[in-house]
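hiii so um. not sure if this is the right channel but i have a protein structure encoded as tokens and i wanna go backwards to a sequence. like what aa goes where. can anyone help
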């Protein structure tokens, strides 16, 4: 507190007369401010009673003295007083309150301060232009106090946000690596700290290599989505089954970036969902899955299962389709297409012809040729099932294999590549 204004400012200062009038009123004004804040702001009603209320009242009174010193000397808030306002901001963060409550308290303080000062100035006959200057100073001082509190609040918030995001990334990592049988028992406490209740089911998103965390602004996502885009294999984890609205939001957030949404699985199988999502990205690059920017694994589970073991599928196709090997490309394509349609339609010549848009007699001719290649096999259920798998695999990989073959120069290389293919 300032007992002698001559210790603070030049006695000849233009503001000294006003300061002398206001100084005796400051203790009562501080008491009134604390009382009004306690009455008008429910969040402060209990905290401002007792010892804490006395501490805040003393801080407010010192702030009022500091205001008068600043009004006279036109100086910023001194460090020892600035710390009081920073402490208020830090306290709001630790109490898990928004800054709106503290801002309201500052507005109440400014209103009561100006009202008391205006009454004193009017009674003393202070010139209006001097009072206008005092009003501007009250508002400026209030803004300065608020800025100090906001700065301290945001500083703690940034620190906590960094720690919070670290815990959520750690939780995501452990969900992808922990043995299924220990997920819930080992991660319960971490999930509490990360404010992410363990759900019953999840779906993982694998983000393609086109995403670069150093150049792309992180997308706005729902707060319940675990995210780590800085991993070598960027990943998102969505609780429960993604709704159509959630999927639409995800596609908008990652527009221009390839991603695959894994199937929804129990929490304990998180790693399996992510593995399938990563596998879908690989299959897309190979041309097995559609060349779409965003892929839903649940739309392609049969295809993904079909190619879950490349070596096994390659051997199956080579064995099942071996009789076609002596035909040229056009013949092989026509007969394979016809056989797949014939098996799929339950041996119906008419439906096969409709599906292929050819004459039924053409289908009969082709089927007689196929029967010559596979004598006594067309009605064998095991053979039909195996052949259908092989033909579908061939159909899915045909565009990719044809592109590779076009890159080979010369008919000999093309013929060798054909011999090594699925059929």
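sure thing!! here u go:
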């Amino acid at each position: 507190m300032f007992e002698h204004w001559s210790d603070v400012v030049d006695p000849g200062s233009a503001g000294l007369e006003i300061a002398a009038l206001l100084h005796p009123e400051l203790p009562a004004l501080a008491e009134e401010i604390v009382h009004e804040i306690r009455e008008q702001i429910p969040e402060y009603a209990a905290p401002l009673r007792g010892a804490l209320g006395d501490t805040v009242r003393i801080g407010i009174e010192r702030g009022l003295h500091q205001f008068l010193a600043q009004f006279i000397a036109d100086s910023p808030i001194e460090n020892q007083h600035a710390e009081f306002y920073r402490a208020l901001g830090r306290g709001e963060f630790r109490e898990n309150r928004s800054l709106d409550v503290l801002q309201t308290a500052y507005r109440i303080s400014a209103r009561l301060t100006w009202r008391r000062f205006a009454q004193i100035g009017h009674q003393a006959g202070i010139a209006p232009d001097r009072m206008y200057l005092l009003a501007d100073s009250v508002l400026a001082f209030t803004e300065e106090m608020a800025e100090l509190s906001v700065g301290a609040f945001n500083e703690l918030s940034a620190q906590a946000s960094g720690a919070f995001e670290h815990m959520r990334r750690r939780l995501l990592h452990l969900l992808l690596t922990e043995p299924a049988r220990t997920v819930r028992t080992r991660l319960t406490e971490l999930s509490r700290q990360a404010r992410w209740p363990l759900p019953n089911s999840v779906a993982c998103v694998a983000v393609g290599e086109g995403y670069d965390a150093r150049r792309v602004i992180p997308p706005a996502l729902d707060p319940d989505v675990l995210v780590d885009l800085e991993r070598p294999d960027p990943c998102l984890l969505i609780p429960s089954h993604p709704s159509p609205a959630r999927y639409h939001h995800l596609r908008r957030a990652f527009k221009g970036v390839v991603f695959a949404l894994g199937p929804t699985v129990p929490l304990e199988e998180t790693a399996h969902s992510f593995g399938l999502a990563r596998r879908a990205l690989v299959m897309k690059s190979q041309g097995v899955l559609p060349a779409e920017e965003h892929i839903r694994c649940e739309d392609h589970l049969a295809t993904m299962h079909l190619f879950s073991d490349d070596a096994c599928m390659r051997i199956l196709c080579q064995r099942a389709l071996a009789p076609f090997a002596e035909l040229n490309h056009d013949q092989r394509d026509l007969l394979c297409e016809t056989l797949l349609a014939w098996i799929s339609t339950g041996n119906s010549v008419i439906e096969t012809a409709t599906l292929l848009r050819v004459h039924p007699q053409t289908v009969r001719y082709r089927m007689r040729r196929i029967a010559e290649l596979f004598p006594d096999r067309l009605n064998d259920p095991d053979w039909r099932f195996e052949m259908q798998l092989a033909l579908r695999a061939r159909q899915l990989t045909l565009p990719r294999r044809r592109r590779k073959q076009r890159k080979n120069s010369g008919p000999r290389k093309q013929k060798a590549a054909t011999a090594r293919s699925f059929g």
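oh and The two ends are 94 Å apart (CA to CA).
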